[in-house]
Amino acid sequence: MGVSTVHGNASLARTTANAGSILTALGVEHIPYYAGSAKPFCRKAVHDPKIHGATGLDGTDLLPKAAVDPIENGNAVTAMREALMSKPAGKPWLVVTGALTNVALLFATFPEVADHIRGLSIMGGAIGDGYTSAPLGNLWGEGERFGNYTPWAEFNIYCDPEAAQSIFSNQVLARKTTLIPIDLTHQVRATKAVQEKLRHGVRDSIEEETSSVRQMFNELLVFFAHTYADVFGITDGPPLHDPLAVALVLFDQGWTNLNFDDRGGERWDVNVITNGLHSDDDHERGQVGRTTISPSEAKGVGVCIPRSLNVELFWGIVEDCLFLMDLHLNFKGHHEASN
Protein backbone atom coordinates (compact mmCIF):
# COMPACT_ATOMS: atom_id res chain seq x y z
CA MET A 1 0.00 0.00 0.00
CA GLY A 2 2.83 2.39 0.79
CA VAL A 3 5.88 3.27 2.87
CA SER A 4 6.57 6.01 5.38
CA THR A 5 10.09 6.78 6.59
CA VAL A 6 11.20 7.91 10.03
CA HIS A 7 14.24 9.04 11.99
CA GLY A 8 16.42 6.23 13.31
CA ASN A 9 19.68 4.66 12.17
CA ALA A 10 20.22 7.82 10.11
CA SER A 11 18.54 11.16 9.57
CA LEU A 12 15.10 11.36 7.98
CA ALA A 13 16.65 12.66 4.76
CA ARG A 14 18.90 9.60 4.62
CA THR A 15 16.22 7.04 5.46
CA THR A 16 13.88 8.58 2.88
CA ALA A 17 16.57 8.46 0.19
CA ASN A 18 17.26 4.84 1.13
CA ALA A 19 13.58 3.92 0.79
CA GLY A 20 13.45 5.40 -2.70
CA SER A 21 16.63 3.58 -3.70
CA ILE A 22 15.36 0.23 -2.42
CA LEU A 23 12.00 0.57 -4.18
CA THR A 24 13.83 1.38 -7.41
CA ALA A 25 16.30 -1.49 -7.03
CA LEU A 26 13.41 -3.91 -6.56
CA GLY A 27 11.51 -2.57 -9.54
CA VAL A 28 8.54 -1.42 -7.48
CA GLU A 29 9.04 2.31 -7.76
CA HIS A 30 5.28 2.68 -8.26
CA ILE A 31 4.77 2.13 -4.53
CA PRO A 32 4.25 5.56 -2.90
CA TYR A 33 6.55 6.63 -0.12
CA TYR A 34 6.43 9.57 2.24
CA ALA A 35 8.89 11.25 4.56
CA GLY A 36 7.52 10.94 8.08
CA SER A 37 8.80 12.21 11.41
CA ALA A 38 12.30 13.69 11.65
CA LYS A 39 12.42 13.45 15.45
CA PRO A 40 10.66 11.78 18.38
CA PHE A 41 7.63 13.18 20.20
CA CYS A 42 9.59 15.18 22.75
CA ARG A 43 13.26 14.35 22.33
CA LYS A 44 16.09 15.03 19.96
CA ALA A 45 16.66 12.42 17.27
CA VAL A 46 19.23 9.68 17.93
CA HIS A 47 21.22 8.08 15.09
CA ASP A 48 23.55 5.09 15.20
CA PRO A 49 26.08 4.92 12.33
CA LYS A 50 28.04 2.15 14.08
CA ILE A 51 25.66 -0.55 12.83
CA HIS A 52 24.47 0.42 9.34
CA GLY A 53 27.03 3.11 8.50
CA ALA A 54 26.69 6.84 7.98
CA THR A 55 24.04 6.52 5.27
CA GLY A 56 21.95 4.06 7.28
CA LEU A 57 22.45 1.54 4.47
CA ASP A 58 26.20 1.23 3.91
CA GLY A 59 27.90 -1.77 2.35
CA THR A 60 26.93 -1.78 -1.32
CA ASP A 61 27.39 0.32 -4.43
CA LEU A 62 24.46 -1.36 -6.18
CA LEU A 63 21.72 0.84 -4.78
CA PRO A 64 20.45 3.06 -7.63
CA LYS A 65 19.32 6.63 -7.32
CA ALA A 66 15.59 6.72 -6.65
CA ALA A 67 13.62 6.80 -9.89
CA VAL A 68 10.74 8.54 -8.14
CA ASP A 69 10.83 11.22 -5.45
CA PRO A 70 8.87 10.86 -2.23
CA ILE A 71 5.38 12.30 -2.34
CA GLU A 72 5.58 15.83 -0.99
CA ASN A 73 2.03 17.11 -1.47
CA GLY A 74 0.72 15.06 1.41
CA ASN A 75 1.32 14.01 4.99
CA ALA A 76 2.71 10.59 5.91
CA VAL A 77 0.27 10.10 8.80
CA THR A 78 -2.75 11.07 6.72
CA ALA A 79 -1.54 8.88 3.86
CA MET A 80 -1.26 5.88 6.19
CA ARG A 81 -4.79 6.49 7.43
CA GLU A 82 -6.21 6.73 3.92
CA ALA A 83 -4.36 3.64 2.70
CA LEU A 84 -5.42 1.47 5.63
CA MET A 85 -9.03 2.65 5.70
CA SER A 86 -9.35 2.02 1.96
CA LYS A 87 -9.09 -1.72 2.65
CA PRO A 88 -11.88 -3.87 4.09
CA ALA A 89 -12.13 -3.80 7.87
CA GLY A 90 -10.13 -6.51 9.57
CA LYS A 91 -7.82 -7.04 6.57
CA PRO A 92 -4.88 -4.59 6.49
CA TRP A 93 -1.67 -5.00 8.45
CA LEU A 94 0.72 -2.27 9.54
CA VAL A 95 4.39 -3.26 9.87
CA VAL A 96 6.81 -1.10 11.87
CA THR A 97 10.56 -1.64 11.54
CA GLY A 98 11.87 1.61 13.02
CA ALA A 99 11.04 4.20 15.65
CA LEU A 100 7.31 4.24 16.42
CA THR A 101 6.79 8.00 16.02
CA ASN A 102 4.81 7.87 12.77
CA VAL A 103 2.56 5.08 13.98
CA ALA A 104 1.93 6.66 17.36
CA LEU A 105 0.88 9.87 15.62
CA LEU A 106 -1.39 7.86 13.32
CA PHE A 107 -3.35 6.20 16.13
CA ALA A 108 -3.43 9.35 18.29
CA THR A 109 -4.81 11.43 15.42
CA PHE A 110 -7.09 8.80 13.88
CA PRO A 111 -8.11 6.35 16.63
CA GLU A 112 -10.63 4.67 14.32
CA VAL A 113 -7.72 3.04 12.47
CA ALA A 114 -7.00 0.83 15.49
CA ASP A 115 -10.43 -0.78 15.18
CA HIS A 116 -10.09 -1.14 11.40
CA ILE A 117 -6.76 -2.95 11.02
CA ARG A 118 -6.19 -6.66 11.36
CA GLY A 119 -2.81 -6.44 13.00
CA LEU A 120 0.24 -4.40 13.97
CA SER A 121 3.64 -6.06 13.66
CA ILE A 122 6.47 -4.24 15.45
CA MET A 123 10.15 -5.07 15.29
CA GLY A 124 11.48 -3.70 18.54
CA GLY A 125 12.15 -4.24 22.19
CA ALA A 126 14.36 -6.46 24.30
CA ILE A 127 12.86 -8.63 27.03
CA GLY A 128 15.88 -10.41 28.49
CA ASP A 129 15.78 -12.37 31.72
CA GLY A 130 15.81 -15.69 29.85
CA TYR A 131 12.68 -15.00 27.80
CA THR A 132 14.34 -17.04 25.03
CA SER A 133 17.64 -18.88 24.73
CA ALA A 134 18.94 -16.61 21.95
CA PRO A 135 22.36 -15.02 22.48
CA LEU A 136 21.92 -11.27 22.88
CA GLY A 137 25.61 -10.45 22.65
CA ASN A 138 28.03 -8.16 24.39
CA LEU A 139 27.70 -4.44 23.75
CA TRP A 140 30.98 -2.67 22.95
CA GLY A 141 32.92 -5.15 25.06
CA GLU A 142 31.21 -4.08 28.29
CA GLY A 143 29.71 -7.46 29.12
CA GLU A 144 26.51 -9.37 28.49
CA ARG A 145 23.25 -7.43 28.44
CA PHE A 146 19.89 -7.67 26.70
CA GLY A 147 19.61 -4.26 25.03
CA ASN A 148 21.32 -3.68 21.70
CA TYR A 149 21.85 0.06 22.18
CA THR A 150 22.04 0.50 25.94
CA PRO A 151 22.35 -2.22 28.58
CA TRP A 152 18.55 -2.14 28.83
CA ALA A 153 17.05 -0.90 25.58
CA GLU A 154 16.63 -1.99 21.97
CA PHE A 155 17.30 0.84 19.52
CA ASN A 156 13.88 1.26 17.85
CA ILE A 157 12.13 1.62 21.21
CA TYR A 158 14.93 3.78 22.66
CA CYS A 159 14.60 6.26 19.78
CA ASP A 160 11.11 7.31 20.85
CA PRO A 161 10.05 5.62 24.10
CA GLU A 162 7.03 7.90 24.55
CA ALA A 163 5.69 6.89 21.14
CA ALA A 164 6.19 3.21 21.97
CA GLN A 165 4.44 3.58 25.31
CA SER A 166 1.46 5.23 23.63
CA ILE A 167 1.08 2.18 21.38
CA PHE A 168 1.44 -0.50 24.05
CA SER A 169 -0.92 1.29 26.46
CA ASN A 170 -3.69 1.40 23.83
CA GLN A 171 -5.91 -1.54 24.75
CA VAL A 172 -7.57 -1.69 21.32
CA LEU A 173 -4.16 -1.94 19.66
CA ALA A 174 -2.53 -4.22 22.23
CA ARG A 175 -4.69 -7.22 21.39
CA LYS A 176 -3.83 -6.77 17.68
CA THR A 177 -0.10 -6.21 18.23
CA THR A 178 2.72 -8.70 17.83
CA LEU A 179 6.09 -7.56 19.14
CA ILE A 180 9.18 -9.04 17.51
CA PRO A 181 11.97 -8.36 20.03
CA ILE A 182 15.65 -9.09 19.60
CA ASP A 183 15.09 -12.11 21.88
CA LEU A 184 13.36 -13.61 18.82
CA THR A 185 15.33 -12.06 15.95
CA HIS A 186 18.63 -13.24 17.42
CA GLN A 187 17.44 -16.79 16.80
CA VAL A 188 17.48 -16.04 13.05
CA ARG A 189 21.15 -15.50 12.27
CA ALA A 190 22.45 -15.47 8.71
CA THR A 191 25.38 -17.85 8.90
CA LYS A 192 27.89 -17.96 6.05
CA ALA A 193 26.12 -21.03 4.68
CA VAL A 194 22.81 -19.15 4.66
CA GLN A 195 24.45 -16.14 3.04
CA GLU A 196 25.80 -18.29 0.20
CA LYS A 197 22.47 -20.01 -0.39
CA LEU A 198 20.65 -16.71 -0.59
CA ARG A 199 23.32 -15.21 -2.81
CA HIS A 200 23.12 -17.95 -5.47
CA GLY A 201 19.59 -19.32 -5.03
CA VAL A 202 18.51 -22.90 -4.60
CA ARG A 203 16.39 -23.45 -7.71
CA ASP A 204 17.60 -24.91 -10.98
CA SER A 205 16.02 -22.03 -12.89
CA ILE A 206 18.33 -19.51 -11.22
CA GLU A 207 21.47 -18.97 -13.29
CA GLU A 208 24.90 -19.49 -11.74
CA GLU A 209 25.62 -15.79 -12.11
CA THR A 210 24.32 -13.94 -9.08
CA SER A 211 21.53 -11.50 -9.87
CA SER A 212 22.01 -7.85 -9.00
CA VAL A 213 19.34 -7.89 -6.30
CA ARG A 214 20.86 -10.98 -4.66
CA GLN A 215 24.33 -9.43 -4.85
CA MET A 216 23.05 -6.22 -3.27
CA PHE A 217 21.29 -8.18 -0.53
CA ASN A 218 24.46 -10.17 0.13
CA GLU A 219 26.67 -7.10 0.32
CA LEU A 220 24.35 -5.42 2.80
CA LEU A 221 24.22 -8.61 4.83
CA VAL A 222 28.01 -8.99 4.87
CA PHE A 223 28.46 -5.38 6.01
CA PHE A 224 25.91 -5.97 8.77
CA ALA A 225 27.68 -9.19 9.75
CA HIS A 226 30.97 -7.37 10.24
CA THR A 227 29.49 -4.59 12.34
CA TYR A 228 27.42 -7.01 14.43
CA ALA A 229 30.53 -9.08 15.14
CA ASP A 230 32.59 -6.02 16.00
CA VAL A 231 29.99 -4.33 18.19
CA PHE A 232 28.11 -7.24 19.79
CA GLY A 233 30.55 -10.14 19.54
CA ILE A 234 28.07 -12.33 17.63
CA THR A 235 30.29 -13.90 14.99
CA ASP A 236 28.26 -16.76 13.47
CA GLY A 237 26.12 -14.38 11.44
CA PRO A 238 23.93 -11.30 11.88
CA PRO A 239 20.27 -11.58 12.87
CA LEU A 240 17.62 -10.47 10.42
CA HIS A 241 15.45 -8.15 12.48
CA ASP A 242 13.05 -6.37 10.14
CA PRO A 243 12.21 -9.22 7.70
CA LEU A 244 10.86 -11.22 10.63
CA ALA A 245 8.22 -8.55 11.29
CA VAL A 246 7.19 -8.81 7.63
CA ALA A 247 7.25 -12.61 7.70
CA LEU A 248 4.68 -12.54 10.49
CA VAL A 249 2.19 -10.99 8.06
CA LEU A 250 2.94 -13.61 5.41
CA PHE A 251 2.38 -16.27 8.06
CA ASP A 252 -0.96 -14.71 8.98
CA GLN A 253 -1.98 -14.70 5.33
CA GLY A 254 -1.27 -18.40 5.00
CA TRP A 255 1.95 -18.30 2.94
CA THR A 256 3.59 -20.80 5.26
CA ASN A 257 3.42 -21.98 8.85
CA LEU A 258 6.43 -20.48 10.61
CA ASN A 259 5.33 -22.03 13.89
CA PHE A 260 5.56 -18.82 15.90
CA ASP A 261 5.40 -20.12 19.47
CA ASP A 262 3.35 -18.00 21.87
CA ARG A 263 2.98 -20.80 24.43
CA GLY A 264 -0.60 -21.48 23.51
CA GLY A 265 -1.78 -17.88 23.53
CA GLU A 266 0.13 -16.12 26.30
CA ARG A 267 -0.31 -12.34 26.11
CA TRP A 268 1.57 -9.54 27.80
CA ASP A 269 1.11 -6.06 29.15
CA VAL A 270 4.09 -4.10 27.83
CA ASN A 271 5.44 -1.02 29.56
CA VAL A 272 8.21 1.22 28.23
CA ILE A 273 10.38 3.13 30.68
CA THR A 274 10.35 6.80 29.72
CA ASN A 275 12.30 8.20 32.66
CA GLY A 276 15.79 9.22 31.62
CA LEU A 277 17.55 11.26 28.97
CA HIS A 278 18.97 10.38 25.60
CA SER A 279 22.54 10.55 26.82
CA ASP A 280 25.84 8.68 26.74
CA ASP A 281 26.00 9.02 30.51
CA ASP A 282 24.57 5.97 32.26
CA HIS A 283 23.34 8.00 35.23
CA GLU A 284 21.45 10.49 33.06
CA ARG A 285 20.09 7.80 30.76
CA GLY A 286 19.02 5.24 33.32
CA GLN A 287 16.85 2.50 31.80
CA VAL A 288 14.98 4.72 29.34
CA GLY A 289 13.61 2.71 26.42
CA ARG A 290 13.52 -0.57 28.32
CA THR A 291 10.52 -2.78 27.54
CA THR A 292 9.18 -4.56 30.62
CA ILE A 293 6.40 -7.14 30.49
CA SER A 294 3.89 -8.75 32.82
CA PRO A 295 1.21 -11.36 32.04
CA SER A 296 -2.08 -9.86 30.88
CA GLU A 297 -4.89 -10.45 33.32
CA ALA A 298 -7.54 -10.82 30.62
CA LYS A 299 -7.08 -13.60 28.07
CA GLY A 300 -6.41 -12.45 24.51
CA VAL A 301 -6.14 -8.78 25.44
CA GLY A 302 -2.42 -8.11 25.64
CA VAL A 303 0.48 -8.07 23.20
CA CYS A 304 1.70 -11.28 21.56
CA ILE A 305 5.46 -11.80 21.92
CA PRO A 306 6.55 -15.07 20.26
CA ARG A 307 9.35 -17.01 21.94
CA SER A 308 10.52 -18.99 18.91
CA LEU A 309 9.78 -19.92 15.30
CA ASN A 310 10.81 -22.42 12.62
CA VAL A 311 14.06 -20.81 11.46
CA GLU A 312 14.52 -23.09 8.46
CA LEU A 313 11.09 -22.18 7.10
CA PHE A 314 11.88 -18.50 7.61
CA TRP A 315 14.98 -18.75 5.41
CA GLY A 316 12.79 -20.54 2.89
CA ILE A 317 10.50 -17.50 2.79
CA VAL A 318 13.48 -15.18 2.27
CA GLU A 319 14.64 -17.36 -0.64
CA ASP A 320 11.11 -17.42 -2.09
CA CYS A 321 11.02 -13.62 -2.00
CA LEU A 322 14.41 -13.30 -3.70
CA PHE A 323 13.35 -15.83 -6.34
CA LEU A 324 10.12 -13.96 -7.05
CA MET A 325 12.04 -10.69 -7.17
CA ASP A 326 14.44 -12.17 -9.74
CA LEU A 327 11.47 -13.23 -11.87
CA HIS A 328 9.85 -9.81 -11.51
CA LEU A 329 13.01 -7.92 -12.48
CA ASN A 330 13.71 -10.24 -15.41
CA PHE A 331 10.15 -9.79 -16.72
CA LYS A 332 10.30 -6.05 -16.15
CA GLY A 333 13.63 -5.83 -17.99
CA HIS A 334 12.38 -7.84 -20.97
CA HIS A 335 9.16 -5.81 -21.13
CA GLU A 336 11.01 -2.51 -21.08
CA ALA A 337 13.49 -3.73 -23.68
CA SER A 338 10.67 -4.79 -26.02
CA ASN A 339 9.12 -1.34 -25.76
Structure notes:
With 339 residues, this protein is mainly alpha-helical. The protein is built from 14 helices and 7 strands. The strands form 3 sheets. The protein has a 3-stranded parallel beta sheet with strand order 3-4-5. The chain has a two-stranded parallel ribbon with strand order 1-2. Strands 6-7 form a two-stranded antiparallel sheet. Helix 1 links the parallel strand 1 (3-5) and strand 2 (33-35). The radius of gyration is 20 Å and the shape is globular. The two termini are 27 Å apart. The model has no long low-confidence stretch (mean pLDDT 92).
Considering the chains and any ligands shown, give keywords for the structure.
339 residues; three-stranded parallel β-sheet; two-stranded parallel ribbon; 9% strand
Quick gist of this model?
This protein has 339 residues and is mostly helical. Helices cover 40% and strands 9% of the residues. The longest helix has 28 residues.
